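[Discussion] Sanity-checking designs against the backbone

I'm trying to build intuition for which residues belong where. Below is a C-alpha cell string of 294 positions. I'd appreciate it if someone posts a full sequence so I can compare it with mine line by line.
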C-alpha cells in the first residue's frame, strides 16, 4: 500500500511538472452549415434555380455524382488556394507559427532542418529542400512565403493536422475547431478560413455566370429565329438575375451559425483529468513493481 501511494504521488508530481512546462492552449470553435432556405433567416433560395418536380435536391439520395456548394466549401476550408492568402500576412504568420519564427534572428526556420525531414532526405538519398530555395535578394529578413513557398501547401498540411471538423448530430451543421496558444489568433484564423473559402466560391460562380452571359449574348446576335431568341432571352434573364444576386453582401456557400469563440481560460491541458490519470498510472505501476519484488 505504501509503495502504491508513493507511486501515485510520483505520478502526480510528474504530471504537475509536465503541465507547468507545457504552453497552455485555447480551443476556438465555430459552427457552419449550408445557406438556409427556410424561415426568415434563410429568406428563400439565394440563387435562382430551375424548379423540377421530379428532381431532388439531396445528392446523397441518388447514385449520380452531385456536389453542393457547401461541400465545396468544406473541402476548400483548408485548401492551399485559401491558406495561400493567409500566408502572405507576415505579422499574422509570426503569431500563428511561433515555433517556426526565430525572433532573435528575425528569420524563419526552414522545414528541412526538422529531424523527420532530414530522415526523409537521407532515405531518399538527397539533401534538396522540399520547397524552393530562398532568394538571396531578399536580405536577412525573409517573409514566410519565401521560405515555405507561396503556394500554401505547407500551411495547408499544418492545418490538416490541427483543424477538426465534426458533424453535429444528424444535422447539416458542422463544428470547426482549432487549438492554439494564442486565443485571438485561433479565432482570427477561423474567420479568415471562412471568408476565404466563401469568397473563392463566390468569385468562381461570378466567373462562370459572366462567361455564360457573354456566350448567350453572342448567340442571340447570331440567330434570327424568333423562338430561339425567346428561349435565349429567358436563359439570359436568369443568368443576369444570378449575377445580380451574387453581388448581395450575404454568405454564398455557407452560413456562419455561431461565430468563432473560445474560452477565456486555457482548456488544454486539463489539470484534473491529467492529474487523476497520472496518479492512477503511477499507483498501478508501483503496485506491479512492488508485487513483482515481493
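Best answer:
Here's mine. Compare freely.
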Amino acid at each position: 500500500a505504501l509503495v502504491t501511494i508513493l507511486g501515485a504521488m510520483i505520478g502526480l508530481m510528474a504530471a504537475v511538472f509536465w503541465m507547468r512546462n507545457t504552453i497552455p492552449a485555447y480551443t476556438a470553435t465555430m459552427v457552419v452549415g449550408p445557406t438556409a432556405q427556410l424561415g426568415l433567416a434563410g429568406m428563400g433560395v439565394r440563387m435562382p434555380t430551375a424548379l423540377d418536380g421530379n428532381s431532388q435536391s439531396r445528392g446523397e439520395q441518388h447514385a449520380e455524382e452531385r456536389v453542393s456548394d457547401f461541400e465545396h466549401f468544406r473541402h476548400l476550408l483548408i485548401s492551399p488556394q485559401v491558406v495561400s492568402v493567409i500566408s502572405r500576412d507576415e505579422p499574422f504568420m509570426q503569431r500563428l507559427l511561433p515555433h517556426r519564427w526565430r525572433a532573435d534572428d528575425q528569420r524563419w526556420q526552414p522545414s528541412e532542418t526538422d529531424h523527420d525531414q532530414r530522415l526523409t532526405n537521407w532515405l531518399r538519398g538527397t539533401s534538396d529542400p522540399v520547397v524552393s530555395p530562398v532568394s538571396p535578394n531578399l536580405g536577412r529578413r525573409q517573409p514566410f512565403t519565401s521560405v515555405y513557398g507561396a503556394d500554401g501547401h505547407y500551411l495547408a498540411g499544418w492545418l490538416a493536422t490541427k483543424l477538426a471538423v465534426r458533424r453535429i448530430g444528424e444535422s447539416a451543421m458542422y463544428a470547426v475547431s482549432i487549438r492554439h496558444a494564442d486565443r485571438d489568433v485561433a479565432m482570427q484564423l477561423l474567420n479568415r478560413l471562412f471568408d476565404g473559402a466563401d469568397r473563392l466560391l463566390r468569385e468562381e460562380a461570378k466567373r462562370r455566370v459572366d462567361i455564360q452571359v457573354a456566350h448567350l449574348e453572342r448567340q442571340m446576335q447570331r440567330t434570327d429565329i424568333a423562338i430561339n431568341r425567346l428561349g435565349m432571352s429567358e436563359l439570359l434573364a436568369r443568368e443576369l438575375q444570378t449575377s445580380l444576386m451574387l453581388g448581395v453582401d450575404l454568405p454564398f456557400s455557407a452560413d456562419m451559425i455561431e461565430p468563432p469563440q473560445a474560452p477565456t481560460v486555457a482548456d488544454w491541458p486539463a489539470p484534473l483529468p491529467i492529474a487523476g490519470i497520472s496518479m492512477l498510472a503511477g499507483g498501478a505501476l508501483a503496485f506491479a513493481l512492488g508485487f513483482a519484488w515481493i
